Amino acid sequence: MAQGVAILAAAPRWLGVLLLCSAALVTPSGAAEEGLITIRDATTHRQAGVWFLDARIDYTLNDAATEALQSGLALDVELVISLTERRRLLWDPEFAGLKQHYELQYHALTERYIVRNRNSGEQATFAGIGAALAHLGNVRYLPLIDDALLDPDERYDVSLRAVLDIKQLGGPLALIGFLWDDWRIVSEWKRWQLRP
Known about the structure:
The protein is of the alpha+beta class. Helix content is 23%, strand content 44%. The protein is built from 5 helices and 10 strands, in the order H-H-E-E-H-E-E-E-E-H-E-E-H-E-E.
């Protein structure tokens, strides 16, 4: 017994840190509140020769994302939009794709949440996380494609998915982020027909 204690005492300090990190990684994900992204509604409409997307998306952060946000890390929100041609016998080839990027960050000094559109550079600030997430989930008049690029004899489908990820993971955190699912929340695909 004394020999076992002597071996543990002689073990390098980094081994204890490694064991602690691995214990954190195997914690059941059900123990923490699960994050969820739900696309409640998504539609397209044509105006002045351009197709636009409107969507209502509900974002629920899990504990990992909330803690990362409060610790100063930014959350990256990506809308992935795919336009495919409808085929009867073959797979539907992608005709066009679009990715819209947003960033959500908490500024501790002002105690405000900042939502930044990384495609356009526009940003808005909010006093609470609920208001910031509601703003992210309210997508209005997002331009998709010029109507002149579409073949009037073809039928097209639009698919939308939202992805929330934690940005700026570096060093040892990059490995943890790679191994731990809680750093990324993904919605189901929502698909509908593009029609005037």
